Amino acid sequence: MTTENIARTPDTAPVVEAPERRNAVLDYAANYWRKVAGGDMGALPAVGGLIVLCTFFAIARPSFLTPINIANLLQQSAPMIAIGMGLVFVLLLGEIDLSAGFTSGVCAAVLAILLTNEGWPWYAGVGIAIVVGVAIGLLLGFLVAKVRIPSFVVTLAAFLAFQGVVLKLLKEGTNISIRDSQSVIISIENGYLSPLLGWAFAALVVAVFAAVELVKVYKRRSRGLPHAPFAVVALKIVGLAALLAVFVTILNEERSRNPLLFGSNKGMPIVVVIIAVLLVLWTLILRRTPFGRHIYAVGGNVEAARRAGIRVDRIRISAFVICSSMAAIGGIIAASQARSVDPNTGGSNVLLYAVGAAVIGGTSLFGGRGRVVDPVLGGTVVAVIVNGLGLMGQQSWVKYVFTGSVLLLAAGVDALLRKRTN
Amino acid sequence: MTPGDTAAPPLLELRGINKSFGPVHVLRDVDFTVRAGEVTALVGDNGAGKSTLVKCIGGIYSTDNGETHIDGQKVNIHGPRDAAHNGIEIVYQDLALCDNLDIVQNMFLGREKRSGLILDEPAMEELAAKTLAGLSVRTVKSVRQLVSSLSGGQRQTVAIAKAVLWNSRLVILDEPTAALGVAQTAQVLELVRRLADNGLAVVLISHNMNDVFAVSDRIAALYLGRMAAQVRATDVTHAQVVELITAGRSGSLGLQPEEAL
Ligand SMILES: Nc1ncnc2c1ncn2[C@@H]1O[C@H](COP(=O)(O)OP(=O)(O)OP(=O)(O)O)[C@@H](O)[C@H]1O
Ligand SMILES: [Mg+2]
Fold first, then answer.
1. What is the pLDDT of residues A349-384, one digit of tens each?
2. Pseudo-torsion of CA B131, B152, A18, A40, nearest 10°?
3. Angstrom distance (rounded) from CA B225 to CA A360
4. What pLDDT is stored for residue B140 in this prediction?
5. How many CB atoms lie within 10 A of CB A33?
6. What angle, rounded to 10 degrees, do the helices at B121-134 and B152-165 form?
7. pTM for the model
8. Which residue has the higher pLDDT, A87 or A260?
9. What CATH number does residue A63 fall under?
10. Lowest mean pLDDT: which of A143-152, A154-163, A189-198, B141-150?
11. Confidence band, pLDDT 50/70/90 cuts, at residue B151
12. What is the pLDDT, as a whole number, of residue A7?
């Protein structure tokens, strides 16, 4: 498998004109700007919105930027972000999973029953909860890909049915509190890294990021391919390091009013590490493996994917499996957060917020465009709005209307971008 | 191998292919032969079944009956992967590119190069750039451009580059010049000729008789889903081919009246 057919031809003019020897950094910036102007805005809208919102709330309510509130925010948004990450895979195909919220509820209920009622160890409970998620994903994926029922209908039916399953599991509405002998599940949302471990984690993240970026530049350079200038790479690494330093410093501050009386409360919430690991793992799979590439291809043009020999049905089923198992993880986190499971776990707004998080972050509802980081950014936006308006003493209706407007804005941007590229 | 060397078995030989979409009988007992080192033009009116025939060869459609032989061996092609394994590459009429992927990603779609489990992007980018350079494509800014940002002609070129990237033995181009300007059309035709001269078998579908006569060694005319005639380009005139396309026969050539019903 080589370019032999062509290599035998005499003409080998370069495709990309040799860049004039200008300032490489300026070139890079110009290129980036061209991409943004061309509609590929990436994380810009979500990050911009986040900065505006945070500035606004910080001015309106100084308590917004306190360490305890920031830690709270991260903990509150974690289940939504986990579910949103899974949803990205389904949304990338142009499909939807309306049942992801109650899937997380079912899995959380299974976890609670196994841990509290049956006394299973935490890892077994977690394992079974995820297996249930996988099974649900297989069922949904099969109905969509093989039976060819539209995903909207399949998952709407599942949305209703799983609501009933949760009720059945919880015996018509009892509340099961989470108890495992080592409190591992509880500490997902309520445990913290020691300050030192927090720094070590941040250092590890920066080191891995730097290694990946530098290897990339090195590999491209050795093949004579265009690459980002070193100055830009260095700036990215330093930028990430600075951001994480601020982040860790804030989270390592004492949040307890009286550490002696109430016990100390400081350090990075463990759930932040879990979300970070999931983010890296799924990003790697989506952006750096053939499987991930095929997800984008199926979302972009099914027929082209099929003609390229991609097994479209398998891709569809896997996307639903990933979505439902991430919902299971979201359910586990939610159970940890509430320290219990009730019929409302995964209900009410959970799914809508998770879809909203992905869309606000830049994932397209039309399929083909989106990244795993989107629900992280978008979920933070949603959490900031809910939290900030709450601090301002706004009534619930304001939160809903405002969040809805932001979602509409994001979906509008999505639709406009699509119109422009067509 | 010189054109017309009939000693070796043809690279591709279809025998008695039938294909229906429900009640619509689109291909009827089609025989079709393609030889290595030759350009075979496949002509026929709109709706004659050219694209359908190509999709049957490529494994996109399954045939109702009929046989496919490659190098004289009977083969079963059940999908695009089987076709690729047999060295068949097709540029479809509707191009079939993913707008949301860039040029490199499209060219390697379904056959990504990797190191370990991870995509080997630099290797793919290098090969893609080389291939495009071989096609003398100078108009794309970067091989990392999204396909959605390309013009019709550029997309056409990417689709062709995708087909010749692989070490293929048979390249089929379904109206590759339909969207192209004068200069690019000439370039594609030149490429078609060059591929055949390099020993590949090439099938060119075109409605333009000048193009057909400019590059092809053989001409196969489909008429309402039947193979009206498959002749050497030097044995027929423009007018005869046009008659084969529009009426299914031309003098003693083509379908006889009772057949053409
Ligand atoms: N998927 C399908 N389902 C039903 N009928 C089809 C399908 N694909 C093609 N046909 C019919 O088969 C016939 C042949 O179509 P085909 O696309 O092969 O023609 P063609 O020779 O490529 O024409 P053109 O020159 O316009 O590209 C047409 O009558 C068309 O309506
Ligand atoms: Mg056609």
1. 889 999 999 999 999 999 999 999 999 999 999 999
2. -110
3. 51
4. 77
5. 10
6. 110
7. 0.89
8. A87
9. 1.10.3470
10. B141-150
11. confident
12. 41
Instruction: Tell me the angle at which helices A67-92 and A270-288 cross, rounded to the nearest 10 degrees.
Output: 30
The tokens for B65 are: 């009956």
Does B5 have pLDDT greater than 80? Answer: no
Mean pLDDT of B157-161: 88
**Of B30, B43, B50, best ligand 1 pocket probe by most atoms within 8 Å of the beta carbon:** B50
Q: Is residue A134 part of a domain?
A: yes
Atom of ligand 1 nearest to the CA of B53: 18
Phi/psi for B115 (5° steps) reads: -115, 115
The whole domain housing A319 covers: 44-191+269-417
| Geometric angle at alpha carbon B37, from B36 and B43, rounded to 5° | 80
Query: Per residue, what are the HEC states of B1-29?
Result: CCCCCCCCCCCEEEEEEEEEECCEEEEEE
The mean pLDDT of chain A is 88
Number of domains chain A is built from: 1
ipTM greater than 0.90: no
| Residue owning the nearest CA to atom 22 of ligand 1 | B51
pLDDT at A183 over 90: no
- With an 8 Å Cβ cutoff, is A309 touching chain B? yes
Q: How far is the CA of A16 from the centre of ligand 2 (A)?
A: 33
For residue A40, the chain B residues in CB contact (below 8 A) are 146
pLDDT at B257: 65
Distance in angstroms (rounded) separating the CA atoms of residues A233 and A235: 5
Provide the CA B128 distance to its chain's centre, in angstroms: 20
> Is A245 part of any domain?
no
The gap from C-alpha A355 to its chain's centroid, in whole angstroms, comes to: 10
Helix (H) or strand (E) holding B226: strand B226-232
Concatenate the DSSP letters of all residues of A148-169 into one string: ---HHHHHHHHHHHHHHHHHHH
Q: Yes or no: is domain B12-87+169-254 CATH 3.40.50.300?
A: yes
Classify residue A24: in a domain, yes or no: no
Rounded to whole angstroms, the Cα distance separating B225 from B177 reads 23
Taking the domains of chain B in order of start, what are their residue ranges? 12-87+169-254
C-beta of residue A87 within 8 angstroms of C-beta of residue A97: yes
In whole angstroms, what is the distance from residue B253 CA to residue B245 CA?
12
Query: What is the H or E stretch that residue A277 is in?
Result: helix A270-288
pLDDT at B258: 61
Computed over its alpha carbons, how large is the radius of gyration of chain B?
A: 19
Q: How many CB atoms lie within 10 A of CB B255?
A: 19
Token pair listed for A172: 């018509």
Contact check, Cβ <8 Å, A297/B137? no
Bridge partners (DSSP) of residue B205 are: B42, B174
The chain B residue lying nearest A3, using CA atoms, is B165
Most confident of A185-189, A285-289, B253-257: A285-289
Residue from B34, B9, B6, B12 nearest B217 by CA: B34
CA-based nearest distance B148→chain A, Å: 6
In a domain, A9, yes or no: no
Beta-strand relationship, B201-205 and B170-174: parallel
**How far apart are the CA of B50 and the centre of ligand 2, in A?**
5
Taking contacts as CB-CB distances below 8 angstroms, the residues of chain B near A11 are 133-134, 136
Span B237-259, pLDDT tens digits: 999 999 899 988 887 777 876 65
Amino acid at site A335? A
Exposure class string for A244-272: b at 16+ Cβ within 10 A, else e: beebbeebbeebeeeeeeeeebbbbbbbb
